[in-house]
Amino acid sequence: MTKCLLCNKETGSLRKIYCSRLCNQRDWTNKNREHVNKYSNERRAANYIPHPATGSNHWRYRGKGSTYIDNNGYSWIKINEETGKESWMYEHRRVMEQHIGRKLIDVELVHHKDENKQNNHISNLDIVSREEHKRIYHEKIGEDTRWQR
What's the predicted TM-score (pTM) here? Predict the structure, then answer.
């Protein structure tokens, strides 16, 4: 017969290493505690090396003024608002806001005269209402046939 690894009582068998489930659980708890202490937060912090691809080094990082083109073909630009918060907005709206010196209201749309969504030069942009924008669009494509069968 063998003796328990934790309390040295006889186990009652040659194959058992603990006398009871309680000794088994206590021993495993102590081993886990030693494992946790061995790799404690302080030790981890001392050996911590920051990942090189974080913040401005990350491959998806886009700084202030960076742009991208969405699935509809419009160009977006990253801006810093007065609150210090970074956000994205349509580049053509930003160009128009800077030109007129105020923010656009929701009912004002910016129309690309040559219909090139990436040509955001001020000479190519107009401020129009939704109705006016629909009228301009339907003049170019003809009568609205979406609802006719």
Answer: 0.52
